[in-house]
Amino acid sequence: MNALSRTILTTTLAASGLCAFAETDYSSGIFFVNEDWYGHQNSTVNYLRPDDADGDYWQYRVIQAENPGMELGCTNQYGAIWNGRFYLIAKQEKDPGAAIKGGRITVADASTLKILFQSDLIDPSGAQCDGRGFVGVDEHKGYISTSNGVWVFDLDSFTVTGQVEGSANPNVGDDKPNNDPTGSLYHEQSGTMVLAAGKVFAAHQQAGLLVIDPAQDKVVNTISMAAVSEEAGIGSVVKSKDGMLWVSIAKGTTGTGNTLPYLLRVDPATLETSVIELPAEIGAPNNSWYAWTPDAFCASDTENILLWKGGKNSWFSGQKIYRYDIDREEFSLYLDLAAEDGNWNLYGCSMGIDPRNGEVYMSLFHNFQDPTYVVRRYTSGGSLVKEYPMISNYWFPSLPVFPCADPLAGVNAGIVTSGSIEVAAGQIIVSGMAGENVAVFSTSGILLVNTVADSDTSIITPSLPHGLYIVLAGTICKKIML
After folding, report:
1. CA triplet 316, 397, 56: central angle to 5 degrees?
2. Residue 337 carries which DSSP code?
3. Nearest-CA neighbor of 350 among 409, 312, 390?
4. 405-418 burial string, b = 16+ CB within 10 Å, else e?
5. Quick one: DSSP state of residue 338?
6. Residue ranges in the chain modelled with pLDDT below 70
7. How many Å apart are CA 291 and CA 177, to the nearest integer?
8. What distance in Å separates the CA atoms of residue 447 and residue 433, rounded to the nearest whole number?
9. Are 164 and 173 a contacting pair, CB within 8 Å?
10. What pLDDT score was predicted for residue 179?
11. How far apart are alpha carbons 482 and 468 in whole angstroms?
């Protein structure tokens, strides 16, 4: 995990460097963002306390519980916590069967879940622009990906200030119906995004991987999937523990869900690419553009590994999970649900790796007509730790979101990036971490400096008063005195 992405993991850093929360805080468990039952109700969020001593593991529909009379929008597929706030992005503002209008954008306090802001629209002009994902850029700005490009979101005023130049969908306004896969809603969409080496990388259905300069809010480069195949498209993009980007490959750009047996590795600093061919027995990562989801394609923050759901048919293959050990260049079958009794399947993209300990959480179901769901917790090696049955409901879960990790966990466990953080004459010296984000926090958890280590030895001179601060670079966390 890069330093900046971990700003989202806690709203309070005590001077000791440990998380400390009130009893009503939601920062110790795991959120599950649900599409919920389209045509009947708006999307929901459930909260799992996986180690509750009394076995009271689930708290359901927590957004509604904390905000009476308010709800999320329709088909909320994405949630991310950034600098103490929970950003939830929905495709539309209201489900056809719901009584309450929510929003395409919902911002809540990550500790209390009190809604701070909602908006029906992403494109301020009112043109159709369905939500996809979110990525935080710094403490003042985030990006929202949509069916029509990537939009700049001011995190101070909760205002969409414009569209990232070069990301727009040229088909907007073509008047094709929403169920036409060649129309603007499902053609030339923007999807998952990651922040790396001072740039934002966004999956674009037709173009490939967009490289965005946040200083200009502009696409400055595009990495085509032609290195794999002339007809290939992109699926999703994730960032591994070593800072590299990994791209899943779609067979085409029309949203059929078909895959190609390759991964594309991208160096975010140099933009150099390499194609990794999957063995014949390893299914390629599933992708979903037509009914867009972020995809069950994950990178661990504690080990240099990738996990994904794979199979011949992206929409209906949910029983085999594959693993790639990047350092050893080894592929393996992580989990085969088909080998068990019970006919369980992983629903959609509902799998995530806990950044605190590398454990894997996934939402399982039987089929689309059965409202029986269970969340399972596995070790990094694929051993079952625990099951968490759920009340009956058509949850159709999307992402698990991990709100809090001890920022010193990597240091305490000996899991650290190779490199060092030192202080001399009021300067922060970061060595051996070129391309990594470097963030400086106050002891109350406020992000004060966000930059990138641009060389093997980077010297950062923050304009901060004398005092105690916390620096995060790569997986190294260190308390310093300036």
Report:
1. 135
2. G
3. 390
4. bbbbbbeeeebebe
5. G
6. 1-25, 173-184, 312-316, 404-418, 443-446, 475
7. 15
8. 20
9. no
10. 60
11. 7
* C-alpha–C-alpha distance, residues 236 and 245, integer Å: 10
Matching residue, tokens 């953080």: 421
Quote the pLDDT of residue 214: 94
Whose CA is closest to 117, among 96, 77, 95, 144?
Answer: 144
Calculate the alpha carbon distances from 368 to 154, 175, 246, 344 in Å: 38, 31, 30, 12
Burial of 245 (0-12, 13-18, 19+ CB in 10 A): buried
* Residues 237 and 245 sit within 8 Å (Cβ to Cβ): yes
d(CA 456, CA 453): 7
**30 touches 381 (CB < 8 A):** no
Residue 351, pLDDT score: 97
pLDDT recorded at residue 417: 52
Phi-psi region of 443 (alpha: psi -120 to 50; beta: other; left: phi over 0): alpha
Distance between the two ends of the chain, CA-based, in angstroms?
25
Short-list 347, 291, 355, CA closest to 321: 347
Distance of alpha carbon 470 from alpha carbon 444, whole angstroms: 10
Nearest-angstrom CA–CA distance, 140 and 234: 29
Name the nearest CA neighbour of 477 among 395, 382, 412.
Answer: 412
For residue 142 the two structure tokens come to: 């985030």
Strand partners, 203: 209
Q: Enter the tokens of residue 93.
A: 């503002």
State pLDDT tens for residues 24-34: 468 779 999 99
pTM metric for this prediction: 0.81
